[in-house]
Amino acid sequence: MNQLDILVPFVLPPAELARDLLRQSKAPSLAMLLGRGKATPLQSHDPFSRALPHEHWLARRFGLPPPPQDSSPGAAAALMQGLGHAPAAGHWFVLHPAHIHVARDHLVLTDIGQLQLEEEESQRLFAAALPLFTEIGHELVYGDARTWFIRADAWAGLRTSTPSAASGRNVDIWMPEGPGELAWRKLQNEVQMQWFAEALNEQREMRGQKAINSIWIWGGADAGASAQHSYGARFGLRGWMRAFGDGAQADQAHANAHAHTNASQVNDILRGDGHRLLVLDALVEAALAEEWGLWLQHLEHLDREWLAPLLVALRADTLGAVNLVLTGSDRLVEVAVTRGALRRFWRKPSLALLAERCA
To answer: pLDDT tens-digit profile of 108-138?
Structure first.
């Protein structure tokens, strides 16, 4: 069947805000899909899980190895491969240059997607940090401006958190625990001290940007832990989700999913038969920052530029079926929609599903 899975992270707003937000929402195509489709029972997720619901869903869908209990998905090796590296035998983690700031009585991790870190800046920080890793026998690999990798065989089993799960929250709760915990904290502190003296951060602050003053670790996996899937094509993969793409396709998908769509881009998604995946993650940054006015704007854009033309394709039978995977910070629901389901005129378009709470 010509089927499209559409993953939309953070389209389920916090329960306490949901009804007020949805009263202001203008998303008629999403309302039609939700009103006419068939929803699975709403799944509740632990709000203190070390990964978000959409991250757990992707890890399962792409066959990543089960992580240590209460840890982030083991994405490091697959992401290295997605960025063109063949990881040497051993246990690898993802590293992100990060910004941690002081709140009233605790430290808070800033969403790494907001850091606007340029390639040249990242290369300078990497070069400054590299001797600290080499000195203690850890291989450090540069992936791209936001993504590095560390080999730490003795740390296998270290329980870590994805940066999205920890963003905007007290980092003490989300710091690594288990094998290598103390060694990691010592290394993290040394990198922080090394970067404190970097003129680069002073230059960033003068431009109104946040200093890169720390690193974040997560995603531990053995070198052979590659992603497995049955999708004929994948679109909208960016950030760590590039672990599930390949080369030029992932780059083009990133460009498409963050531009105003047009007929040719929708056609790229609809071309061919089989099972495909589209990730629409435009709501993530606003939700993590709790900027709900901006969230509403992005929801309306997503509805107009993406869901509306896909709904037209479903009605025209160009698309056989759509499976919406909708998540929030602690909930997930899937909604299956077929052309036949759209004929259920007695079922009114509605966004009410987005405000439902788990029983």
So the answer is: 999 998 898 999 999 999 999 999 999 999 9
Backbone φ, ψ for residue 166 (5° rounding): -90, -15
User: Could you tell me if 99 and 210 are in contact, meaning their C-beta atoms sit under 8 angstroms apart?
Assistant: yes
Query: Which structure tokens are listed for 185?
Result: 């904290």
Kindly state the tokens that stand for 353.
Answer: 């599903």
| pLDDT value of position 65 | 84
Between the CA of residue 177 and those of 139, 160, 337, what are the distances in Å? 21, 7, 42
Cα angle: 203, vertex 209, 214; to 5 degrees:
85
DSSP 167: B
Average pLDDT for residues 53-60, to the nearest whole number?
A: 94
Q: Which 3 state secondary structure label does DSSP give 332?
A: strand
* CA distance linking residue 256 with residue 264, whole number of Å: 10
Strand partners, 216: 96
Which pLDDT belongs to residue 260? 46
Q: Could you tell me the CA-to-CA distances from 103 to 116, 165, 171 in Å, in that order? A: 22, 18, 11
C-alpha distances in Å from residue 323, one per residue of 20, 39, 61, 283: 26, 10, 14, 19
Tell me: pLDDT of 262 over 80: no
Per DSSP, the three-state class of 305 is: helix
CA 349/CA 353 separation, integer angstroms = 11
Distance CA 20, CA 258 (A): 27
Which amino acid would we find at residue 177? Answer: E
* CB atoms inside a 10 Å sphere around CB 52: 25
Distance CA 53, CA 7 (A): 11
